[in-house]
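Handout for the seminar on molecular recognition.
Each group receives one record of this type.
Step one: identify the two inputs.
Step two: read the structure output and locate the region that could contact guanine.
Step three: write two sentences on what you found, then compare them with the reference statements printed after the record.
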Amino acid sequence: MFEIKYKDGAARSGVFEVNGKILETPYLFPVVNPKRQVLELKEIERLGFKGVITNSYIIYRDPGLRERALERGVHALIGFDGVVMTDSGSFQLYHYGSVEVSPSEIVRFQDNINVDIGVILDIPTPPDAGYERAQRELEETVRRAEEAAQLDRNMLLAGTVQGSTYPELRERAASRIARLNFDVHAIGGVVPLMEDYRFAELARVILHAKRGLGHSKPVHLFGAGHPVVFALAALLGCDLFDSAAYALYARDGRYITPGGTFKLEELRELPCSCEVCAEHSVKELRSLEAEEQERLLAKHNLISCLEEIKRVRQAIYEGSLWELVAQRARAHPALLEALRVLRGYSSWLERLEPVTKRSAFFYTGAESLSWPAVVRHIERLSWIERRGDELVFLPEREKPYSRSYRIASSERYHICVVSPVFGVIPLEVEETYPLTQHEGVATLDEEQLSFMRRVVGEYARGFKKVHYHAELEFLGIDGEPFEDVSQFHTGGGEELKLRALADYQLGRGAGEVLFAGARAEYSRRTGRIRRAFVGGELVATIRASDGMVVPTIAGAERLLRLRYPRCRVVVAEEAVEFAKAGKSVFARFVVDCDPEIRAMQEVVVVDESDELLATGTALLSAEEMLELERGIAVKPRHRRR
Ligand code: GUN
Ligand code: ZN
């Protein structure tokens, strides 16, 4: 029921189908109060919301509401046809210490009132609770989850991960919840973290929960209703949010923007053009009677939240979510702190990061140096087969560098540009994403300097001789300075370039099997390599937009000389005919694959006896295609003749 369409970072944008109704993810559920609803549901629907969340415990506890809900269902009760999710009373449990309903009864009740998505009665343990308490309450939550998972039901059900601020408890709880086959995974107990701006801990909680949960189900982050956190939480893999904040803040006379919140009295301008802000001045809003003011503020707040969710979805689609998170991190130092936490999780994040995107990589500050695109680049530098005894470092120039310098690597000289964003860029791979498509700053900060020194130093190891352009003196490179670049121009090197490209994109040794003895054909318009032939046979094209090596069927046959399961996606017997016919490979038919596969990478599709079926583009990372039950894993390109 959950299908990923686009990815960026650990974020997924896709569709969650609930009883025939479609939610586009990341999705925000407005919280609806069954007793006192500030914004009419018709209004919420008109704004474009296809689902809301309300509280089943409030309904359960009120004899009138309860009777009507049991008689006519929750949709009729609140007057909404879309997806209705309900919470279970955990929030009340957290605030009052107890609730007057049993865990299984409230789950049954949610099902009986025809809720679309119900939630178990988990126990939210607050941040900083003692370890013993966190563990004890977690055990009880997991017990309740197991019990709820056994109940017969028509509705979808969410199981919640608790564990307070203990990473290992979160991770363990998550893997236990993941085994119970819930329809939605929820992360709970984080409202106090959000209220106190403890975003770094929030990030850690999400990351550890996600590690245990896996990728197959949509993940709901409970109570994350303020738009400043949407981009960050989505980046870490949260798909569903709920917001009571739009209404609670309105009640306090507070005006929400994605950059922070203002008291109405503080505002002289309304920095928004939604229907409320277009039709009213600040003065008018302030002079309204309380109820009308609250309603209009709630509407603005909700629109502001919705806009941010749309911005996040757009950013996932175009691949600019890291940059959006960096922008939001400037709204408050606590968010910047959270962005810094991600440095410690770069290998997990790298596994989920697509290898190419629609948008360029923007350097937004020192944090960018630990983003997956950079971490991956540094790792992949070591995948490129070493050629040439002598290393030449050049300062950055206009891209493409080889054109600016009129030079290329050769069998003797391995030529690299020193980059303040990616450290070292060998000319062979300069036209591959994200190396071409990146923008940095001309003046360097300290972090960039030490980053460049480190990467350059490590890269130079093992070369017989190192030459560096005199402009790079400041890096303290151990080698010989020069000023005349032309001395390193020896010509040739097209096979070398192709091999480096393949190694960099497809892993060690890919260049040799794919391109040994290759000859290149150049585009007359751009002067760049367009196609590669081995012995007269076309083995790959090089995509102009991002420099990706796209193997033909002949190329794929060569790649299969790499040891199993390198470069491969293996499909089950029942999907073989479809793959052969050039159809998409669905994730549920993937039985094995190269663990190094990343989303947007070119892959070889084989059957279980390693027979070549087709080639295509992976839309998911390796671990996602192995876990997901829905959606396309490989978009077809060539089929076997
Ligand atoms: N709403 C806010 N936090 C929580 C939580 O931890 N669990 C549930 N079920 N609902 C919540
Ligand atoms: Zn507005």
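Reference statements: The longest strand covers residues 11-18. The chain has a mean pLDDT of 97.
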